[in-house]
Amino acid sequence: MPLAWPGDNMKKTKTNTEHSRAVLRQSTWFKTLPAELQDQILTSSAQRQYGKDEIIFREDQPAIGICAVIAGEVAISRMAGAENECLLHVGGPGMWFGEVAVLSGRDTAVTARALTEAKILVLPPAEFERIVEQEPRYYRPLAMLALQRSQIMLRNIAGSQNLSPEQYLRLRLADLAEMWIGDSQRDTEVEVSLSQSQLAQMIGASRQTVNALLKKLESDGLIRTKFRKLVISDIDGLRGERRRTGL
Question: Which domains, and CATH codes, for the chain?
Fold first, then answer.
């Protein structure tokens, strides 16, 4: 269970709101929303604190809301069969999740778990409905978050079936980067919080294989490695395309 639900009696100060805005603007999706919609999301949301390894929500349960990481790291996964957990994504401050269940009105399709102590912003389903009822034109930008993720999911499903471990790793890293910066800023370096063990889970390979592949990608100038972090410096190169020049 979450450690606390702020409730109506907790009023976010301007400082807290602006800090949350600065963190969330690390996500291109949030940064490109109309300023008024950003304000409504921030003022209509509340924050929850989670401990390390605490479940934020489980798959096949009612949605708690559209969520964003303000601090800490969160893993998104889904069970494949009775015992195998499939790691889908790991993200830190600025990552959004939980939108599909809210938009569809159905139960959640994934499990979200705090990998570290985490602060999560939650826009409850009722507040989402209120926002789009008052201003229907806001539905489209809110829905774009789920639509962008769906495109990435379809690429990953195809890649898991037809690509070699190196090709699939390159695809996953490029997609993870684009989840943060969007297609319009592909020359931007992106730092993602992922360990080699987590990457191995994502592509269904051994940690030793991932280690060797990352060394190759680093020698090719496509990424740089840090402790539990990767700096993705050439998204087009990961996809086997020429780097865009903007000309």
Answer: 14-139 (2.60.120.10), 163-238 (1.10.10.10)
